[in-house]
Amino acid sequence: MRVIGASLDCVIVSRPMRYLGLHPSAMLLGAQLLQVLLWPMLDGSVVGRAGLGAIGMLAVGAAVLAVRRTPNVSRVVLFLGVPAMALTLVEPVFPDEDAIVLLSGALHAPFYVYVSYAMLRYLFHDDKVTTDEYFATGAAFTVVAWAFAYAYSVVQVLWPDSFSSPSGSDQSWFELLYLSFSVLTSVGLSDIVAVGAQARSIVMVEMMTGVFYIAMVVSRMVGLTILLRR
Q1: How many domains is the chain built from?
Q2: Cα 46 from Cα 50, distance rounded (Å)
Q3: Per-residue pLDDT for the chain (230 aa), expressed as one digit of tens each?
Q4: Range of 85's domain?
Q5: Is 223 domain-assigned?
Q6: 4 part of a folded domain
Q7: CA distances (Å), 61 to each of 56, 58, 81, 114, 165, in order?
Q8: Is the residue at 14 inside a domain?
Q9: Structural domain contains residue 171
């Protein structure tokens, strides 16, 4: 009975791990959505915020290394991803230090832009649609939202009072992420408003990015799926 129980435990554990190994984009998408759901509950905990950030960064690094559709991906992960992960652990300890917040955003934003570029190259490298590419469509979208959220954090440090909301002019990172998702999806549900010129310029770029993502990436995946079924 013990042998059978051990075998069942191995199967239960190995199947999800094997699935994630075959679908790294699913792991990335799941980690991003997990951060969104758990952040409000762990926002007041330094260890919780650092742990969530580290999990997200590890998932991003693993996914981009798995797809490997861009040149010099290992160097980008080393020179941008590793310092960004270190700052992910440091920033929750010093959330009010503008220098740390600025450096963290300045590293995270280009890193996430590169990751989204790598995911898009992975999606466009052939005319076949796989299960992992479906997950990659959603994962690339969340990565873009993360990149703009960090860009907003940089703007907020360099140009204070760039954003306004009922809670005040100093927005938390999670609130900036909420703004980023609202702008990228064009739902317009955020109560945070860009009032500074620099903030509004980045908001306009994200609006265009969201429209082009739906028009180019999602429509292509839908078209290839229809052709595959025919």
Answers
A1: 1
A2: 6
A3: 544 544 444 444 455 545 455 678 888 888 888 888 888 888 778 888 888 877 777 777 777 766 665 666 777 777 888 888 888 888 888 888 899 999 999 999 998 898 888 888 888 887 788 888 888 889 899 999 999 999 999 999 999 999 998 877 788 889 999 999 999 998 877 889 999 999 999 999 999 999 999 888 888 888 888 877 76
A4: 22-229
A5: yes
A6: no
A7: 9, 5, 7, 11, 33
A8: no
A9: yes
